[in-house]
């Protein structure tokens, strides 16, 4: 079945009555006069795709985070880790707050226009209260209590940016010892993993970085080093986290196979626009062999998969680059996750205030539909009948290029 679109004066293929980049532009006389009927197929194979949007280079800066303002809960100074972090930034202004979650100064909508400055110059220190382990079933068996939340990077599609105010700078929790003890108790109660699953055939896997990037966190404190060390001594458990930042200091942490790092990968063309302040894709790929040699289990996340008119060629090129770079040892243990883009109207509106160019890739109502998430959020995802076809095609390209790479899950 074909789906009708029109090519507008602005050069964009748009469904129904409006251009998805410029709502209402079809009502302009100049646009009406030149709209032409076009056939849009679920495969997105087009003989004459629209021109690629201008690429905005928002690459990893030399200094990812340099706190000039630190919000802290009063109890932070009672913890050695809290005093260590404060000592690292002696010139930062300190502002006490009742809760790391409720900081009125970060709720000012005007901060959206200073999105990157907030991430670079603001740090939050707090004490983690809840120690619950939440069942997951995808990337991990359980989501562990976090040692941080927020991120100094600024990926335009990331849900974390909608929390704790504008930009959601990093919060470091200074009671990481409470987290490691909770992990050890939970794993001990579970005992050995009797039935293998797609997450891991032997160990219970705990996701340590659901709301941030631990590779970046490791540049601020020893929390990540402590977590990696803890899993060396938990016999039936393994830590795991996804990252878009290559921090080679982690190579000295001696994980002994008990920590899984998942490098997130996507085609460089799109990453230069939406993966803001992250390590370049070539650097992430080049790091895989070294992290395997250092004793980490290393998987990759193909995430998010963003569908557009040239996606097939770009993903095939990425698979070829990855395949050529991997050592024999890295290939032998490699597995992956495939996650198609999920977007959100609130995040769309927020991005328009600081990085509207990203929305040219993310906001595609012509091929997206609303869907309620398990957590009760109204999100935008690719239309179900098309997404199934696109996912099958994606998995086919991956199997052809890297038949040794097992897909742990895909959605």
Automatic annotation (TrEMBL):
NCBIfam families: lyase_spl_fam. This is Spore photoproduct lyase family protein. It holds the Pfam family SPL. One of its GO terms (cellular component) is endospore-forming forespore. One of its GO terms (molecular function) is DNA photolyase activity. Keywords: Lyase. InterPro entries: SPL (IPR049539), Uncharacterised_Spl-rel (IPR023805). The keyword Nucleus does not apply. It comes from the Bacteria.
């Amino acid at each position: 079945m074909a789906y009708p679109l029109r090519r507008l004066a602005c050069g964009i293929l748009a469904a129904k009555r409006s251009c998805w980049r410029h709502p209402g532009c079809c009502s302009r006389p100049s646009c009406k006069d030149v709209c032409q009927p076009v056939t849009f197929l679920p495969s997105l194979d087009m003989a004459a795709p629209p021109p690629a949007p201008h690429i905005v280079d928002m690459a990893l800066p030399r200094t990812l985070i340099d706190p000039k303002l630190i919000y802290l809960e009063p109890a932070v100074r009672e913890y050695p880790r809290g005093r260590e972090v404060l000592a690292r930034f002696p010139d930062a202004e300190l502002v006490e707050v009742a809760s790391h979650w409720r900081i009125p100064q970060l709720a000012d909508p005007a901060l959206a226009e200073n999105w990157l400055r907030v991430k670079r110059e603001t740090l939050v220190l707090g004490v983690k209260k809840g120690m619950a382990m939440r069942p997951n079933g995808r990337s991990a068996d359980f989501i562990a209590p976090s040692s941080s939340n927020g991120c100094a990077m600024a990926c335009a599609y990331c849900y974390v940016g909608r929390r704790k105010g504008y930009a959601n700078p990093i919060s470091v929790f200074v009671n990481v010892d409470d987290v490691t003890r909770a992990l050890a108790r939970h794993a001990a109660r579970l005992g050995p993993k009797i039935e293998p699953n797609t997450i891991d055939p032997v160990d219970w896997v705990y996701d340590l970085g659901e709301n941030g990037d631990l590779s970046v966190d490791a540049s601020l404190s020893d929390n990540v080093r402590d977590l990696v060390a803890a899993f060396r001594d938990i016999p039936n458990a393994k830590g795991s986290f996804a990252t878009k930042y290559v921090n080679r200091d982690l190579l000295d942490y001696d994980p002994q196979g008990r920590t899984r790092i998942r490098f997130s990968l996507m085609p460089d063309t799109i990453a230069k626009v939406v993966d803001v302040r992250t390590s370049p894709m070539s650097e992430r790929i080049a790091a895989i062999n070294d992290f395997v040699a250092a004793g980490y289990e290393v998987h990759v996340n193909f995430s998010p998969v963003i569908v557009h008119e040239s996606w097939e060629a770009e993903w095939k090129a990425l698979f070829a680059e990855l395949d050529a770079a991997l050592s024999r040892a890295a290939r032998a243990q490699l597995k992956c996750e495939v996650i198609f883009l999920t977007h959100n109207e609130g995040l769309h509106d927020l991005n328009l205030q600081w990085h509207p160019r990203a929305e040219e890739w993310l906001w595609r109502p012509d091929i997206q539909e609303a869907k309620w998430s398990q957590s009760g959020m109204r999100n935008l995802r690719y239309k179900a009948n098309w997404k199934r076809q696109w996912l099958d095609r994606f998995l086919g390209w991956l199997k052809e290029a890297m038949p040794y790479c097992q897909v742990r899950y895909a959605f």
